[in-house]
Amino acid sequence: MEIPTTHQTVMPYLMLNGAQKFIDFTKKAFDAQLTASMHKLHEDGKTIRHSEVTIGGSTIMFSEATSDWKPQTANLFIYVANADETYKKAIDSGATTLMELSNQDYGRTCGITDPFGNVWWITSIIK
């Protein structure tokens, strides 16, 4: 089995209301990169049929929700270099606080809910 180079064995697939805005959010909050070759639109030329962003080498697939494919969100755990900075960028990009920043035995962490209903657990390693 040969997996495409931009893919991993397991990847989340989100059905979103506002898929284009999800791209903007992940770029601002998590420095995501859009995988241009995987960005496909419906026949209307506006609605995202399939798209992918990569964050730190991990891919998130997503599409605009439809009447056949209802919104499906996720809880996502993300390691970042600086949880405080990433938390601020996420909040500034429209996320809301689920859990305030704190030091835990596994790192500096917080929880946010993005504007699309996904929960992100943001963590950086404490050295």
Automatic annotation (TrEMBL):
It holds the Pfam family Glyoxalase. Residues 17-122 form the Glyoxalase/fosfomycin resistance/dioxygenase domain. InterPro entries: Glyas_Bleomycin-R_OHBP_Dase, Glyas_Fos-R_dOase_dom. Gene3D superfamilies: 3.30.720.110, 3.30.720.120. SUPFAM superfamilies: Glyoxalase/Bleomycin resistance protein/Dihydroxybiphenyl dioxygenase. This is VOC family protein. The lineage of its organism: Bacteria, Pseudomonadati, Bacteroidota, Flavobacteriia, Flavobacteriales.
